[in-house]
Design a protein that fits this description.
Blueprint (H helix, E strand, L loop, with lengths): L1 H20 L9 H6 L3 E8 L7 H10 L3 E8 L1 H13 L6 E5 L3 H4 L9 E10 L5 E10 L3 H7 L2 H7 E5 L6 E5 L7 E2 L1 E5 H6 L9 H11 L1 E2 L5 E6 L10 H11 L27 H11 L17 H6 L3 E6 L2 H9 L5 E4 L11 E4 L1 E5 L6 H12 L1 H11 L9 H4 L6 H6 L3 E2 L7 H16 L4 H14 L3
Parallel strand pairs: 1-2, 1-3, 11-12, 14-16
Antiparallel strand pairs: 3-15, 4-5, 6-7, 8-14, 9-12, 9-13, 10-11
Helix pairs in contact: 10-11, 10-18, 18-19
């Protein structure tokens, strides 16, 4: 009997490791894994999208990481940056936060770059006879530079990477400082009733045709006052995102916005345009300001007009250049307005180029849970999960794999059709100062300043933000 009892104990000890792998051993996982799986709260700050758009992503993430709670908070755009800067100064900043990609230069010192790999606890069901939850530690590789380039549209790869020096300072490598949930592009909004009334059957696809249509759609009284505007363009104080519009006009016209060092060059004649009579940047600026010059044929706008978005919503202007986020604003202000959107006009015979305006999800350098934070950002921006957000928030995609699925959508198709050719340019360490330099440039030229001198001054001001 004693022998039989001894053999039973020995046999049990031999099969114990196998029982453990089947879920009948230590159900909680290793002590190290249990320690890593302590409760974590990720504070996540954003603008625009309410928590409903993120509920499913957060719920899906908790399936593998039940110890992680994501505290999602939305701010108004006008208060957001002040809240961010105050929070960082007082060491109560978020773990994850959104910033416009043009702010990356300003915020880089506050950001943790994406690590090459991340080790985290995962909850898995293990066992053959009986499935039970077990916590295990896993190390996963982060998104590689090749995967970044293959997964996202081109401008993302060019915009979110920055060189980082090694610990000894001897080498530098490119690191990812944020990933986008979506990517917006500038489009042409148009009033269908006004175009129909003017006998314009085709929406202009080139800037030349745009000028012609704007002239046909503009109505002036005997004193030269604008009764109906063909296009809300030309000024800086009452046009939405005037620096973006001027930038894309310059870029489409062959302007070199910055050099390899990041310094402004939009006031110069690039080598590729050396045979032209007028510098491409100046030519684009003249094209833009002509719409607000009473002596020009295309005159259709001035500083006394209402805000461009308001004028379009009220049916007072036929053409309005805007983004995806303007769509819901127009519908809320004018639910009965008969309008549509079209692709951004291009220079006839030129290579298609569109303007990218988007935010990236970044991780704070001061986050105590940076590994979890970066893992969540990669999870949320992956094609499988981001689809839920894009559908709920009605945003255009930044991922190549999802473009075709959005093309048939009446609201998103135009935006999705432009993301592959969308670009922007490096704004240095102060995007707001750059925007002010360009808007001041518009004001100066409309006020009679010499265009060459005004361009040189604006370029110098923008270059100052590069340091």
């Amino acid at each position: 009997m004693f022998k039989n009892h001894f053999y039973k104990i020995a046999a049990f000890l031999l099969i114990l490791p196998f029982l453990a792998t089947m879920g009948l051993g230590c159900k909680g996982g290793s002590q190290e894994a249990q320690e890593a799986a302590k409760p974590v709260t990720l504070n996540y700050w954003r603008v625009f999208d309410d928590s409903y758009s993120f509920d499913k992503i957060i719920k899906d993430y908790k399936v593998s990481h039940p110890n992680v709670n994501v505290a999602y908070k939305v701010f108004r755009l006008e208060e957001y940056e002040d809240e961010l800067l105050n929070a960082f100064a007082e060491d109560r900043g978020p773990d994850i936060f959104s910033i416009p990609v043009t702010w990356l230069g300003k915020y880089q010192s506050k950001l943790a770059p994406m690590p090459a790999s991340i080790t985290l606890p995962y909850q898995e069901l293990q066992g053959v006879i009986k499935k039970e939850p077990v916590t295990v530690l896993k190390t996963k590789s982060s998104l590689s530079l090749r995967q970044l380039k293959d997964s996202f549209v081109d401008t993302v790869y060019n915009d979110v990477l920055r060189e980082v020096a090694s610990a000894d300072g001897k080498t530098k490598s490119l690191k990812v400082f944020g990933l986008p949930m979506n990517l917006d592009t500038m489009v042409l909004y148009y009033n269908r009733d006004l175009l129909n009334g003017a006998g314009i059957s085709r929406v202009p696809s080139t800037w030349k045709d745009f000028q012609t249509a704007a002239m046909r759609l503009t109505r002036l009284d005997k004193l030269g006052n604008i009764l109906q505007s063909g296009a809300a363009l030309g000024t800086s104080n009452n046009v939405e995102r005037p620096s973006d519009i001027l930038s894309i006009l310059m870029m489409q016209n062959g302007t070199e916005m910055t050099d390899a060092s990041g310094f402004a060059r939009f006031n110069e004649m690039p080598e590729s345009a050396s045979g032209r009579a007028v510098k491409p940047g100046e030519e684009a600026l003249i094209f833009y300001t002509d719409f607000a010059s009473p002596t020009k044929e295309v005159y259709s706008w001035n500083e006394k007009m209402p805000n461009a978005l308001d004028a379009f919503s009220q049916g007072k202007t036929a053409f309005f250049l805007g983004y995806n986020y303007h769509l819901s604003q127009i519908r809320a202000r004018a639910p009965k307005l008969n309008f549509s959107i079209a692709r951004l006009p291009q220079i006839e015979g030129g290579q298609e180029l569109n303007y990218a305006n988007y935010w990236i999800e970044s991780v704070s350098k001061k986050s105590l849970n940076a590994s979890f934070a970066w893992d969540f950002v990669q999870f949320a921006t992956d094609a499988k999960e981001v689809t839920n957000y894009l559908s709920s928030a009605k945003r255009p995609t930044a991922l190549r794999a999802l473009i075709d699925s959005q093309l048939p959508d009446l609201d998103l198709g135009i935006f999705a059709s432009q993301v592959l050719t969308a670009k922007n340019w490096y704004r240095g360490n102060d995007a707001k100062a750059e925007e002010k330099a360009l808007t001041d440039l518009i004001v100066a030229v409309l006020g009679g300043a010499k265009i060459g001198e005004a361009m040189d001054l604006a370029a110098a001001r923008v270059s100052a933000t590069m340091r």
